[in-house]
UniProtKB/TrEMBL annotation:
It comes from Candidatus Terasakiella magnetica. Residues 24-279 form the EAL domain. The chain holds residues 292 to 574 of 574 of the full protein. It comes from the Bacteria. GO terms for molecular function: cyclic-guanylate-specific phosphodiesterase activity. This is Uncharacterized protein.
Length: 283
């Protein structure tokens, strides 16, 4: 009878295992292998200043370069990695190579631009580990903390807002900034929102999609921009795909735009070409 022995020493009999559990285990093992062979890389997407068209910052978005299957997006592997307790290691790898690349651009004389990095709620729930990881990566790469901006989803911050405020203050003391991702899809308490040490609200793509055709979406987007302004925060519109969407956001006073209309997330060498150009011409 075939059997497997896990690192913990437990014995599983293959016949007793259902295929789903086997699949999950195989995927987890594959993820471990991918970590060891450093198959996780960041892609980059520019955030464009709505008034000038200049690239104002960039976001690093994780990709798994699977040797056989090609590029795999975070929507697929992040949930499995979180379940398997591997998200920390993957994040370390992505954060390290993102910061190393951005530091290289700085050394080559490109204009210093903030770099946004996504942080999973699992990591945000372990603030000591997160701070340790941040300081390690900054040490390893020489990237200035002031240029790092962590993106946290609304739900991961509002889960335990008091602890989130403490963690964000600790990060800020360190020099690291934070912004709220996918804003509008979670449940924000406005009294906490006003106390959060953050610099940006990113309006979720769900509200941008139909913004030119759906009055309610348009009203929500406008309200978020005004709320952010009242709190002294900048706004970013995610998922700008058309000129009409861009023009609506500009008219309403949104600060930054991000989306396929300007550029898809691209590998580092293509991002560097965009940095050399510096920006986009606006309609
Ligand atoms: P997000 O941070 O909200 O990232 C925006 C997502 O929208 C990205 O998907 C991006 O490729 C996509 N996008 C950007 N512009 C457009 C557009 O104009 N149209 C459309 N249809 N999509 C657009 P992606 O790269 O698949 O990432 C999905 C999510 O995975 C991210 O959402 C983020 O929450 C998470 N993620 C990405 N990288 C990391 C990472 O390194 N660590 C962790 N923990 N999560 C990550
Ligand atoms: Mg993000
Ligand atoms: Mg987002
Ligand atoms: Mg999103």
């Amino acid at each position: 009878r075939a059997h497997l022995t896990s690192p913990g020493g437990y014995r599983f009999y293959v016949e007793e295992m259902n295929t789903r559990a086997l699949r999950v285990l195989a995927y987890e093992n594959r993820l471990r292998k991918a970590i060891n062979s450093e198959e996780f890389v960041p892609f980059f997407q520019p955030l464009v200043d709505v008034k000038t068209g200049q690239i104002a910052s960039m976001e690093a978005l994780a990709r798994w370069k699977h040797p056989r299957l090609g590029l795999i997006g975070p929507g697929e592997f992040v949930p499995v990695a979180e379940e398997a307790g591997l998200i920390g290691e993957i994040c370390h790898q992505i954060l390290h190579s993102t910061c190393a690349t951005a530091k290289k651009w700085l050394d080559e004389g490109h204009k210093p631009l903030p770099l946004a990095v996504n942080i999973s709620w699992r990591q945000f729930a372990q603030p000591e580990r997160l701070l340790l990881l941040m300081s390690r990566v900054l040490d390893e790469t020489g990237m200035p903390a002031e240029l790092i901006e962590l993106e946290l989803t609304e739900s991961s911050v509002m889960e335990e807002p008091d602890s989130a405020i403490r963690t964000l203050n600790d990060l800020r003391e360190f020099g690291v900034q934070a912004s709220i991702d996918d804003f509008g899809t979670g449940y924000s308490s406005l009294s906490y929102l006003k106390r959060l040490p953050i610099s940006k609200l990113k309006i979720d793509r769900a509200f941008i999609n139909e913004v030119n055709h759906n009055e309610r979406d348009a009203a929500i987007v406008e309200a978020i921009i005004q709320l952010a302004r009242a709190l002294g925060l900048k706004t970013v519109a995610e998922g700008i795909e058309t000129q009409e969407q861009f023009e609506f956001l500009r008219e309403k006073g949104c600060d930054l735009a991000q989306g396929f209309y300007f550029s898809k997330p691209v590998p580092a060498h293509e991002m560097e070409k965009m940095l050399i150009k510096g920006g986009f011409s606006l309609p």
